[in-house]
Write a structure and sequence with these properties.
With about 325 residues, this protein is mainly alpha-helical. The chain is about 55% helix and about 0% strand.
Length: about 325
């Protein structure tokens, strides 16, 4: 299975970078689903059914072969976890209302060379605040969005439709913040003076950019049944379940961000990538890098672990929200 996923990751043609691709976000949703009791699952689904686009984006898309409430509810969790990416495809008024690009990431800086850090660090203006504003803003980052969603979802004065939309963002962004390249941007005076957008500006020989390679480590598309079975497999793996259970005891978003940033620096932007880019430090652009099998295997291992940790943590947060609805 891991070999198949690795081949998928390095051969698929890249589209717009999304975070984890559909397969990864659905897996986060299914792992979270399985952390909850049936009563808690039903309470989360009840919130989602107030979504203003429930009919278009949920009810009408549900596969007919799902015959039990448990299956339908798990599918709803999966769909909610990918809904903010579905919204990227909206047009017109719906796109303006629901698409929020900055809500998917935060660009903590790292620098290609010490000289780059010295020249650039004091000039950065990116939003890296972890404190959400009093009211929703289009330029919130992923941590601010998660924290605002958690606040609104336990506030009895929040309108039901607003809760449903923010619950989708919570279920999606807990996955996003565990993707190392959604936490960090690489800066270089010539190559990336305004940042590499979490690896989107680093071209690779795998017909993709670095960000897309990481997005696709878990696969690209995934059916309900495939995701369901994989969630069970991951949770039955002693190492993965132990890591997930431990992760679920750490529910502060800054911890999640710090973990992802450390992994971005050590693994996503490892010496293979930064060493290559330093060869072009005086250029405006570097040719595509060929990522080695060693890099891809290590990236795949980290990605799998991060999705499991995200699923367990999302489950723990959803338990809190379900408790507030009693």
């Amino acid at each position: 299975m891991r070999r198949i996923l690795l081949i998928t990751a390095i051969t698929a043609v890249a589209t717009t970078a999304l975070a984890w691709s559909e397969a990864g976000h659905k897996l986060v949703g299914s792992i979270a689903f399985r952390q909850l009791t049936p009563d808690q699952q039903a309470k989360i689904v009840a919130i989602l059914k107030n979504h203003p686009r429930w009919q278009e984006d949920f009810q009408s898309k549900m596969p007919a072969e799902l015959t039990t409430d448990e299956e339908r509810n798990e599918w709803i969790f999966q769909q909610a976890a990918i809904w903010p990416d579905i919204a990227r495809g909206f047009q017109g008024e719906a796109r303006e209302k629901y698409t929020r690009g900055p809500w998917h990431y935060i660009d903590l800086p790292t620098f290609l060379t010490p000289e780059d850090e010295k020249a650039i660090k004091g000039t950065l203006t990116e939003n890296i605040s972890l404190t959400p504003p009093a009211e929703e803003q289009e330029k919130m980052n992923v941590v601010q969005t998660i924290r605002m969603a958690r606040r609104l979802l336990v506030d009895k004065s929040t309108p039901d439709d607003k809760k449903a939309v923010m619950l989708c963002w919570l279920m999606h962004d807990v996955g996003d913040i565990h993707q190392p390249l959604h936490s960090t941007a690489l800066y270089s005076r010539n190559l990336f003076p305004t940042g590499d957008r979490g690896g989107n500006s680093i071209k690779t020989d795998q017909r993709q950019n670095l960000h897309a390679v990481w997005d696709q480590f878990l696969g690209v598309r995934s059916s309900f049944r495939t995701t369901h079975n994989r969630a069970i497999k991951e949770m039955n793996d002693p190492d993965q379940s132990t890591a997930g259970t431990d992760a679920a005891t750490k529910l502060d978003e800054k911890t999640w961000l710090d973990e992802s940033h450390a992994l971005a620096v050590s693994t996503a932007y490892d010496s293979e990538v930064t060493g290559y880019l330093r060869g072009y430090v005086d250029e405006k652009e570097a040719p595509p890098i060929h990522l080695t099998e060693r890099y891809l295997k290590e990236g795949g291992r980290v990605a799998e672990l991060r999705v499991v940790e995200a699923g367990y943590r999302l489950g723990a947060v959803l338990k809190q929200i379900a408790g507030e609805t009693e």
